[in-house]
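Purpose: get a first structural picture of the assembly so the mutagenesis plan has something to point at.
Setup: two entries, given in the order below. No constraints added.
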Amino acid sequence: MSELLLAILLVVATLAGYKIIGQVPSLLHTPLMSGMNALSGVTMLGALVATAAAVSTGSALLGAAAIVLATINVVGGFLVTHRMLRMFRSTKLVDRQQDDQ
Amino acid sequence: MTAAVHHIIALIFVVGFLGGIRLMRSPRTAAQGNLLGAACMLGAVVLTLVKHGVIGTGLLWAAMAAGAAIGTVIALRVTMVQMPQLVALLNGFGGAASAIVAAVVLNGDAGDLNLFSRLSGGLALAVGTVTLSGSLVAAGKLTGRLRPRPVVLRSHGWLTGVAAAATAGLALAVAFMVGDMRVAVSVAALVAAALYGVVMTIRIGGADMPITISLLNSCSGLAAAIAGFAIGSPLLVATGGIVGAAGLILTQSMCRAMNRSLMEVLSGRTTVASGSGAATESATVDPQAAPRAPGSEPPAEEGREHAQGEQADLGTLLGAAKTVVIVPGYGMALAQAQQQVKQLMDRLEAGGAEVNFAIHPVAGRMPGHMNVLLAEVDVPYDKLWELDAANAALAATDLVIIVGANDVVNPAAGTAEGTPIYGMPILRVADAGKVIICNMDTAPGYAGVPNPLYEDPEVTLLLGDAKETVAQLIALIPR
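Result (structure tokens, whole complex):
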């Protein structure tokens, strides 16, 4: 993809993100943040490509380290976000669960 | 796979990420949104492996398996109180990964890069490294391994300026070097960026950590986006941009909630007050003092026994209140008193009172921290009020119970000009009929400004570990 298109993509994605993320209530700002941790792990895609293309052992090892770090972000980020979001329940749900017990 | 097909599928995944965030507008659909994001990320990984024909490369799978295993263990073991340091650490990992990608692309054997890729590579290396070192300092302050108070070195401003200029200069210079010189300049840029991250964050105080980790969150996205430019990946560019925007929004929202500018926070001016003598003096108090860690002895004059009559008064107060608002702060988290607070809510509700929670945006050590702590102990989210809703309801509230919160309810924010909290929007608890404060002691909060509420005749003070004082309150509620 050409540099110009990439630059346009960055601007559009940032603006769209800004608009949509601004609507997330402060109630959910902690899970939003950990979810963004997961998304910033997208750099693992770059790490995969760089590692696969590496010829020298040093580059391959560095690349593998980047894959490990970024995958921790992706997996840890999505999982901890899921754990948190499951805790948020409305009065109705909490009451129903307490009745069940 | 042609490039066009790849780009179209990549765009679908980006739209999927945005759709996932859109579902986070409501706590009912937020978990689905997170799953949608995770599914798109998995798709993006497979897409990348297929496009480059490396889906069978064992090293890649081994590295991913290792990262996934570590990530799973971390995500399952972390407690909700530890969320701020986890997020700080993950910000750092994201930055580090982007920096390494840039370093490998720049100095590897992937063939010739054009100037644009080399320039973005140098920048990604610098931004990623700043994110890493800054996040490590932030995580250290949050865990208490480093002192949370601002560390101001001699000529700190000068040092920061030099580090920033050196980082930028070296990062750009990388693009114009070849061979061994490029490796050398890359390493120099890395060292300068690491230093810059450290000098920038060590002078930020503990109370400003919500702003700091929001900013570093933004930086980790920025690093990924710039790395995306270096390798020509639309997925990295777009997703990095989204993360950057999210961090920016959170940073702005935190700054607004504290009525301070980002520049003030970065220059460490917020905790060392420049105004009145009293504030300057108390700013030198150890910021950990209030809320003090559980277990430390409260000063003798504050450890006074409550008279019998006072106890009876409290019982009557708790029994008579029809509307109660609980204001939690970081002291509740430090004392691990969430379960007791939930019991207090249950007991008051069993007695016929209506109980809600008032959550200040900067209560805790990261945006939204209190909400997660209370959701964990099954407090329904519709009882968690934001600042404006809470202030609108406080005048009609019979009783406010403050648990480990200080600066966010300090009326001095409206009057004490020149102090760090001046102008900060607070929860106006004095509007309510009666106030009970369950804090460790009456020392000033993180911001170092004395709280006039402690002298107010409508306020009852219950000093000590929040776990115990809230349990005392529960015992006093008439059955």
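The mean pLDDT of chain A is 92.
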